[in-house]
Amino acid sequence: MEHKGFEVSLPKNPVITMRVIPGHFTTSRAHITHYLGVSALKSNALVARDVARELAIPYHSSTLVETIVCMERTAVIGAYLAEELLQSGSTALNSNGEIIIVSPISNNIGTLSFQSSMISKIKNKNILLLTATVSSGRSLDGALECLSYYGGRIAGVSALFTVPDIMIEHEIHTLFTSADIPGYTVYGSRDCEMCRAGLKLDALISYEGYSRI
Question: Which end of the chain is more exposed for a tag (fewer CB within 10 A), N or C?
Answer without folding.
Answer: C
